[in-house]
Amino acid sequence: MSSQRNRQVATKTGPQDSDRRAALAELRQVQRVFAECTWPDQRAFARARKRARGRALQVFAGAGYGDGARQTALLLACAELFRALTVELADSPDDTSRLAQELQKLTGLPGLALAREVLRAPELLVLSPDVAIAVVLGTASAFAPLRNLSLWRLTADDDLQCVRYAGESAPSRGARQLAQRLLTCEQLEPPESGERRLLLGQPVGSSLQPPAALVGVARPWMREECEAFLAEAAPMLAAVLERDSLLAGNAASEREQLEASRRRLTRMGFDLHDGPIQDVALLAEDVRLFGDQLKPLLGALDEHQLVRGRIEDLDSQLAALDAGLRRLSHEVRGATLLLNRPFGMAVHDHCEAFFARTGIEPRLSIDGDIATISTSQQIALLNIINQALNNIREHANANAVEVAVTVTEEGVDARVSDDGQGFDLEQTLIRAAREGRVGLLAINERTRLLGGRCRIDSRPGGPTVVSVAFARWLPLPAIAERARASS
Question: How confident is the model at residue 12 (pLDDT cuts 50, 70, 90)?
Answer without folding.
Answer: very low
